[in-house]
Design goal:
The protein is an alpha+beta fold and 360 residues long. Helix content is 41%, strand content 17%. Helix 4 runs antiparallel to helix 6.
Length: 360
């Protein structure tokens, strides 16, 4: 439909105003009705409204010139003009509402959604099971007043070994096949490095944990990986005893497994603790009968721990004559395997999304 030139059709009568206001206003009304029927969109409707009711519109102009008439003529013509104005305003309002209704119907026709359909949603990602358990352990220790620390993956020999009472010729270095870098640094072999940096920064008393990745040149099998996860913990204060260590370990394990688990403490040698212990957990995969994860012995080495060696406290600028503490190192991967019944540590780095999606 061709657009209508409202300005031309509804232009003021060039005759004298007295003649204009006395003309048959029903003619203007009829012209308006005809033009309104040809309006095709809201833009044309707005143009028609401006030419009739705008500041320079035809009806507005008639109202402005009423003052030129005599009182009797002014009253009679004013009434008729206002009646026409009310008619136009009402008709324009109905037309505008009709356009809005038509637009809504068109949107409903094109944008409708059948809410009764069972549409499959795009799957969303989820946390790795190791991350899930790590965050849970962080919450457990945070509730007990521990601070969660972090540290770099690339470490110095001083922090990774010597500050932990492992000098260069110490045989304990042979227990950890280390990745050395060309600049003399190395990939950390345990998260105990986070404890070292924590001691250097904090003043006792303090309680800290340090989760993260560690790296060793291991022979990969069902229970060993080159890259794996640990969580170290330490508490330093006056008069800390082995009983404090046992208490916190029991709280941790019962919270993680949501039930009582059978554990055992064995004497263990670690240069950074004295005395040292190995905390083993009864294998939850085979109930102690023997499997590939527990190497057929029924127990899984889970948590080396002990009282912090005085030399380690000194390396952290802490006086061992005033303070004592306990420390432990938790194998996160093995803990996750026990919790979820995973029989091969290599699944954690397999990049198989089917494995990850099981832990939503």
């Amino acid at each position: 439909m061709e657009s209508v030139d409202f300005a031309e059709v509804l232009s003021p009568d060039p005759a004298h105003f007295e003649h204009a206001v006395k003309e048959d206003l029903s003619t203007i009304q009829a012209e308006f009705a005809a033009l309104l029927r040809n309006v095709s969109d809201e833009k044309e409707l707005a143009t028609l409204k401006v030419h009739l009711l705008g500041k320079k519109g035809r009806i507005t102009g008639l109202l402005k010139e009423l003052g030129q008439l005599s009182p009797d003529e002014r009253q009679a013509c004013g009434k008729r003009i206002n009646e026409l104005k009310s008619y136009v305003e009402e008709a324009l309002g109905e037309a505008e509402a009709s356009f809005v209704d038509r637009q809504m119907r068109e949107r409903l026709e094109t944008e409708w959604v059948d809410v009764s359909l069972n549409l499959s949603r795009r799957p969303v990602g989820n946390l790795h099971p190791v991350s899930q358990v790590q965050y849970e352990i962080e919450d457990i220790f945070s509730a007990m007043g521990f601070e969660v620390l972090d540290g770099p993956h690339v470490e110095t020999d001083e922090v990774n070994f010597e500050a932990l009472n492992i000098p260069k010729e110490h045989p304990a270095r042979d227990m950890q096949d280390t990745f050395y870098l060309e600049d003399g640094n190395l990939l950390r072999t345990h998260t105990s490095t986070i404890q070292v940096r924590g001691m250097q920064r904090l003043k006792p008393p303090f309680k800290i944990i340090g989760p993260g990745k560690v790296f060793r040149s291991e022979r990969i099998d069902a229970s060993h990986e080159v890259t794996f996860h640990q969580l170290e913990g330490m508490m330093v204060n006056r008069d800390i005893k082995v009983a404090h260590l046992i208490h916190f370990m029991k709280v941790l394990l019962s919270s993680i497994f949501r039930r009582e688990v059978e554990v055992r403490l064995r004497p263990g040698y670690f240069p950074f603790v004295e005395p040292g212990f190995e905390l083993d957990i009864r294998c939850l995969l085979c109930s102690g009968k023997g499997c590939s994860v527990c190497k057929q012995v029924g127990w899984v080495e889970l948590l080396p721990c002990g009282m912090v060696h005085p030399n380690v406290l000194r390396a952290g600028n802490i006086d061992p004559d005033k303070y004592s503490g306990f420390a432990f190192g938790l194998g996160l991967d093995r803990l996750v395997m026990m919790r979820y019944g995973i029989d091969d540590i290599r699944h954690f780095h397999s990049a198989d999304l089917r494995f990850i999606r099981q832990f939503r």
